[in-house]
Amino acid sequence: MYMLAPYFQTGIAEAGCDEAGRGCLAGPVFAAAVILPQDFFHPLLNDSKVLSEEERFELRPYIESNALAWSVASVDNIEIDLINILKASFKAMHLAVDQLKKRPELLLIDGNRFVPYLGIPHHCMVKGDARFASIAAASILAKTYRDDFMDQLHDEHPEYGWSQNKGYPTPAHKKAIAAFGHTSYHRLTFRSEIGQR
């Protein structure tokens, strides 16, 4: 069984941080921050992208019940268009860290870039969600909360198939945009990626 590292530095409160929805054409970007006890374990815990939807939703309440602290935040498509998706992803992570009930002493960030947050040291970890338990946990919370949100938006605009594609640029989603235009939830700065004819 592949084991994620339980921590990067022993004896301190580390918050794993990850985002979901960065590559989408519609909807917010979500981020989560999670502080786990250093003995946290669940046999399914892994990068959210390699888990099934059922596994992610099985893990979410376990993470929430056993974490020392966790939070989820989002930045909507309007602000994404104003500040760009990279800055919006960092802002969502900052908001999630700010909402933690326990102040972390170190942030473990999935990816290779980050804007420092209130003097808390951080380490950027490429593919960190497949390496460290706290980042994997954050990836699962960000993904499941965003999926829930997109399912709600699907009820308003079922023609875009958001319950299936979650706002990502699938062929069906692009075809629906070509047929019906943009909604108030679409990221207009992503028009070049839509490939309308």
From TrEMBL:
Gene3D superfamilies, per database record: Ribonuclease H-like superfamily/Ribonuclease H
Highest taxon in the source lineage: Bacteria
Primary subcellular site in the record, as a coarse category: cytoplasm
Catalytic reaction equation(s): Endonucleolytic cleavage to 5'-phosphomonoester
Subcellular localization(s) per the UniProt record: Cytoplasm
Cofactor(s) for this UniProt protein: Mn(2+); Mg(2+)
Principal EC category: hydrolase
Protein keywords: Cytoplasm, Endonuclease, Hydrolase, Manganese, Metal-binding, Nuclease
Chain sites annotated for binding a divalent metal cation: 18-19, 110
Enzyme Commission number: 3.1.26.4
Record-stated family: Belongs to the RNase HII family.
PANTHER family: RIBONUCLEASE H2 SUBUNIT A, RIBONUCLEASE HII
Name of the protein: Ribonuclease HII
Species the sequence originates in: Rurimicrobium arvi
Lineage: Bacteria, Pseudomonadati, Bacteroidota, Chitinophagia, Chitinophagales
Gene that this sequence comes from: rnhB
